[in-house]
Each structure stands twice: as structure tokens, then as C-alpha cells.
Design brief:
Length: 367
């Protein structure tokens, strides 16, 4: 199987697995200890959690704290619903191409929702006007379906000028490009996911700038500074931390490898149309379409190549992608699009072979 669906999830880095193993050990090693317990094994587990917290925080701006969650969806819920619970949420502005975790949480908050349009290239205008009375602006760093990189620093500045906070879903950008904004253009809250940066599933984080007021959404024992109750997994935290540290150390080499694969893809898929801006994008996300392409047949013909017909979170819904619709594609064009995702562990030879087969299978449909 050739795996080309890195936006859905990334392979677990061997270094992350190695960091997790001591905390999955049997009773003799005491790796199972509760990190919230005061005895020595508990303190050792707590120390591992704090090391991981520092490793994840190193990917973020200075002047904030990392709150571990069960994933990015929970982190986004904590950010939006936590502002509501703190009595600080009025109108919310979201981009038209946000992940469902943002769109649905904003709608569920009960606050008025203003949808910010995007260009045909899938970009929110950096000089986007923020309506008066807006309390929270939510724009992702890198789109999960088409890979476009949003001007988040400019949008954060616009939000702050309007008196609003800025939440950035950085799930697809963290560990790949610089953290969202600096200074006045810095995000106030940033959502992260471990399994999108070669870490384990089941853990994410919300980075919160110092001074931002949140109230808990989950209630219980008051862990994570009172904002996220529940027993943390030292194993998951350690894996997340190790994956973050690896991203920090391999930032440039990862990007160079992805850029090389991107160039290979463009050479091997002539005649395909790129969805999304050609310049302002993460090169590990290739969303392309071919007129009349039967994607279901293509995937059936190439069962040993794992690629996507769209966002994995929306698969099976039968609905065309809201992202592709937002950039002006018709339902037919959206349904003739595929997403090819690649990264650190994608081998150049396998990649070229897979794309050659995809191109041939698509051409065969035309008779």
C-alpha cells in the first residue's frame, strides 16, 4: 500500500513511538501511573507530561500556555465554547473554508456567525473587514482540503483592531510553517493535533495567549489548570512532545523533501487542474481535478494507493465539499477532484510510480 493521505493523518514517527513505550509498560516499570497522583510514580509521569508540554510549546509563539486535549476538535470547542462559558462570546466570524470542527462549533455556540468569503484561489483577503461587534475571528492557517496558506497575521491584526480575539486552527500548519503571527498579528488561541505531525491519535492541544479568559467546557477534577478535566495519558503526551520536537529539528529537511515531491507531481499530472492558489499553499497538499473523472472508479482501480476524494471528515456524507464550493467549483467539478497528501515518509520512487498509475487510470476512463 502506498499512503498518500497525509492530510487525514500522518504515520507515527518511530521517535514518537519510542517516547511512548516506557509509559505503556507493565506494572514493574510503573509507567502506567496517574500523572495527577502525588506519589513518586505519579510525579515521574507528571514530569513526562511537562516535558511534552514544553516540546509542543516550542512550536508556538512565546507568551502563552499549552492545554492538552483529546484532539484538535476538543481544543476548538474549548476555545469557542470556553469563551462563551466565560461570558465573552458575542458575534463570531469564520472563513467559508474552515474545518467542520470550527464551523459546527461556532454554530452550536448560539452566537451570530458571520462567514468570511474566500477568493477563487481559496484565500481570505488579508484586508478583510471585520464587522463591528465581533468578539472572535476564526481562520485556519493551512486549509486541510486544498492546502492554501491563509494570511493569518494580517487577519489577526484586523481582528485585534476590531476588538476581537483571533483563533487559528493550525492543525495542518504546525510543525511545517512558522506559528501564526507575531506581535499585534499574533493569534490569541491556536489549535493543534498530534496525529497530523507524526504523533499519536487521541491527543491535541490548545495554545492560549497569556491574559485570554476561558471557562471550562468539561467539568470534573480540574486538571490542566482547571480548563480541561480528565486524566492525561503520559504515553500520548510523550508521543506528542517527541513528534513536535522532531518537527522542530527537521523543519527545513521536511520542507525540502515535500517541495521535491511537489515538483514531481506537477511533472507527472499534466492536464490536471489545480484547486486552490498555486503560490500561497503548502506543497504537501495536492488537490487536483480532471473533467469527467469518476473518482469512485479511480479509487476502485487503484486500491493499493491510499488517496482521498476530499476531506476525510466529510467522507460518506454524499455532499460536495463545502471548501471546493466556496472557491466556485460546481458540484460536478468538486466530484471530479482528488486530494493527494504526502510528507516526511513518502519515498520519491513510490510516489512517482503511484502518480504515474493515477494519471494512466484517469486517462483510461476517457476511452
Amino acid at each position: 500500500m502506498i499512503y498518500l493521505d497525509y492530510q487525514a493523518t500522518t504515520p507515527l514517527a518511530p521517535e514518537a513511538l519510542a517516547a511512548m513505550m516506557p509509559w505503556l509498560a507493565g506494572p514493574e516499570a510503573m509507567g502506567f501511573a496517574n500523572p495527577h497522583s502525588p506519589h513518586r510514580p505519579g510525579r515521574a509521569a507528571a514530569a513526562a507530561v511537562e516535558v511534552a508540554r514544553e516540546q509542543v510549546a516550542a512550536l508556538m509563539p512565546a507568551g502563552g500556555r499549552v492545554i492538552f486535549t483529546g484532539g484538535a476538535t476538543e481544543a476548538i470547542n474549548l476555545a469557542i465554547q470556553g469563551r462563551r462559558a466565560a461570558g465573552r462570546l458575542g458575534q463570531v466570524a469564520v472563513s467559508a473554508i474552515e474545518h467542520a470542527a470550527v464551523l459546527e462549533t461556532a454554530r452550536a455556540s448560539g452566537a451570530p456567525v458571520d462567514v468570511l468569503p474566500v477568493s477563487a484561489g481559496g484565500l481570505v483577503a488579508g484586508d478583510q473587514a471585520i464587522a463591528a461587534g465581533t468578539d472572535l475571528v476564526c481562520v485556519m492557517q493551512v486549509n486541510n482540503e486544498i492546502g492554501t496558506i491563509q494570511p493569518v497575521a494580517q487577519l489577526a491584526e484586523a481582528a485585534h483592531r476590531a476588538g476581537a480575539l483571533f483563533l487559528c486552527d493550525a492543525v495542518q500548519g504546525a510543525g511545517r510553517i512558522a506559528a501564526p503571527g507575531q506581535g499585534f498579528g499574533q493569534a490569541d488561541m491556536i489549535a493543534l493535533s498530534a496525529h497530523k505531525i507524526y504523533g499519536p491519535k487521541g491527543i491535541g492541544a490548545l495554545w492560549v495567549r497569556d491574559g485570554v479568559d476561558l471557562a471550562p467546557v468539561l467539568h470534573g477534577g480540574g486538571q490542566e489548570g482547571g480548563l480541561r478535566s480528565g486524566t492525561l495519558s503520559p504515553a500520548l503526551c510523550a508521543g506528542f512532545g517527541a513528534a513536535a520536537a522532531l518537527c522542530a529539528s527537521q523543519w527545513e529537511s521536511d520542507a525540502q523533501h515535500v517541495d521535491s515531491l511537489w515538483k514531481t507531481a506537477l511533472d507527472l499530472l499534466p492536464g490536471w487542474v489545480l484547486n486552490g492558489d498555486a503560490a500561497q499553499r503548502w506543497h504537501g497538499n495536492l488537490n487536483v481535478r480532471r473533467e469527467g473523472l469518476d473518482v469512485a472508479r479511480l479509487m476502485s482501480d487503484l486500491r493499493d494507493i491510499a488517496f482521498s476524494a476530499g476531506s476525510a471528515c466529510a467522507s460518506g456524507s454524499g455532499r460536495p465539499s463545502h471548501v471546493l464550493g466556496a472557491i466556485g467549483l460546481s458540484a460536478a467539478q468538486a466530484k471530479s477532484s482528488i486530494r493527494i497528501g504526502f510528507g516526511r515518509y513518502t519515498a520519491q520512487g513510490e510516489f512517482a510510480g503511484a502518480l504515474t498509475r493515477i494519471a494512466a487510470a484517469a486517462a483510461a476512463q476517457e476511452g
